[in-house]
UniProtKB/TrEMBL annotation:
Keyword tRNA-binding: no
Native organism: Leisingera caerulea (Phaeobacter caeruleus)
PANTHER family according to UniProt: CHEMOTAXIS TWO-COMPONENT RESPONSE REGULATOR, STRESS RESPONSE REGULATOR PROTEIN 1
Source organism superkingdom: Bacteria
Pfam families (UniProt xref): Response_reg
InterPro entries (UniProt xref): Bact_response_regulator, CheY-like_superfamily, Sig_transdc_resp-reg_receiver
4-aspartylphosphate PTM sites in chain numbering: 73
Listed name of the protein: Response regulator
GO biological process, one term: phosphorelay signal transduction system
Length: 239
């Protein structure tokens, strides 16, 4: 079933199989791989998805419309998603549901304190968990009445999206290897790698971040991470 079929009648009421029908979800996420998972979850749930890959892009979207649901990654290339969550939690009008997401579960408390109604830990692949997190926080007039079958389906993003993330990381590395840039890349690649089950890359990202926090030299760890990214770009399959 394609997008045109699902969204041809935008005013249709939610159904048990498409409980998010009629909702517009703005996903603020710099990872193509993570966003592809969310796109598939939205498609199967009946929701319309819009994507922003940074705070600047998200704010452009929000100047034009207010989404029904906002899902913001905590770590973004131009700042923290927590700042956007704080802004929208106090805005009027505001999105009906504000959620945070990250591959680091330790950030859940900070996200809730910033004003998020809930937290989605990456990887986000469970259709039932995704739907329930949104439905539990919708206003009463948007709730689906009656019983709803819980689908235990999971989604598997196309690994071409993972390769896109590797290309993004390589571009960032080629432009700068300042500490601020390396901090962003360690967070970005660590989250993407864990979502994709790429253990060696996740471990390398964690080593770089650990060295940075300890004030140790970063040259060798950055070079190792860059080499792993390049390996993945040179393969036909992402992992």
């Amino acid at each position: 079933m394609d997008d045109s079929e699902l969204f041809a009648a935008a005013q249709r009421l939610p159904t048990t199989r498409r409980p998010l029908l009629g909702l517009t979800i703005l996903v603020v996420e710099d990872s193509r791989f993570a966003c592809e998972a969310l796109r598939l979850l939205c498609l199967r749930s009946g929701a319309r998805i819009r994507r922003a890959d940074c705070l600047k892009s998200a704010r452009r979207h929000l100047q034009v419309y207010r989404p029904s649901v906002l899902i913001a990654d905590v770590g973004l290339p131009d700042g923290s998603g927590l700042d956007l969550i704080r802004e929208l939690a106090e805005a009027s009008p505001r999105p009906g549901v504000i959620l945070a997401t990250s591959g680091d579960p330790a950030l859940e408390e900070a996200a809730l304190e910033a004003g998020a109604a809930g937290f989605l830990e990456k990887p986000i692949t469970s259709l039932a968990a995704f739907q329930q997190k949104i439905l539990a926080n919708l206003p009463a007039d948007r709730q689906l009445s009656g019983p709803r079958a819980m689908d235990d389906e999971t989604v598997e993003p196309d690994f071409l999206a993972y390769r896109d993330d590797m290309a993004h990381a390589a571009d960032v590395l080629s432009m700068s290897q300042e500490e601020k840039t390396l901090a962003y890349l360690a967070q970005f690649l660590g989250g993407v790698a864990r979502s994709a089950g790429d253990g060696p890359l996740a471990a390398a990202a964690d080593r770089l971040d650990s060295a940075r926090l300890k004030g140790e030299p970063l040259t060798q760890d950055a070079a190792t991470l860059a080499g792993l990214v390049q390996e993945r770009l040179e393969r036909r399959a992402a992992i």
